[in-house]
Specification:
Order of helices and strands: EHEEEEHEEE
Largest sheet: 4 strands, mixed
Helix content: 10-25%
Structural class: alpha/beta
Strand content: 35-45%
Shape: globular
Radius of gyration: 15 Å
Strand order of the largest sheet: 1-4-3-2
Number of helices: 2
């Protein structure tokens, strides 16, 4: 029997927690938690719309350098996802058409990169 594995939380390194939190909320993420656990540890969990996996930003969360995280997300419709990102005032290029999917790319204020992929054979995202 093979166990089921589900990704739960991905740390995203940022320089300004409040700026990053506002950015992610602006593009539609839900702020699930924002707790100062102790001095030097602030835990902010944000979940993309419809996702079972969240990101965590904050203080004392990761040793990664801000701007180095790369995350790919599956979406049902690349055009709609692009419009949502643009409507939030975030820069992105045209939808990138590839044989294995349609992609939308953007970066958060720290330069962490996001790839939104619509796959034809997974129309529900």
């Amino acid at each position: 029997m093979t166990a089921t594995w589900k990704i739960e939380l991905i740390p995203v390194p940022v320089t300004d927690v409040d700026r990053a939190k506002a950015f992610y909320e602006k593009i539609g993420f839900n702020a699930d938690h924002d707790h100062r656990v102790s001095e030097g540890l602030r835990f902010v969990q944000l979940t993309p719309p419809g996702s079972a996996c969240s990101i965590v930003i904050g203080e004392g969360i990761t040793e990664k350098t801000p701007g180095t995280q790369e995350i790919q997300v599956v979406v049902a419709d690349a055009d709609a996802a692009r419009e949502q990102v643009l409507a939030a005032g975030v820069e992105t290029g045209a939808v990138d058409e590839q044989p294995w999917g349609r992609f939308v790319y953007f970066r958060d204020p720290d330069g962490n990169s996001w790839s939104l992929q619509a796959i034809e054979y997974r129309p529900q995202g």
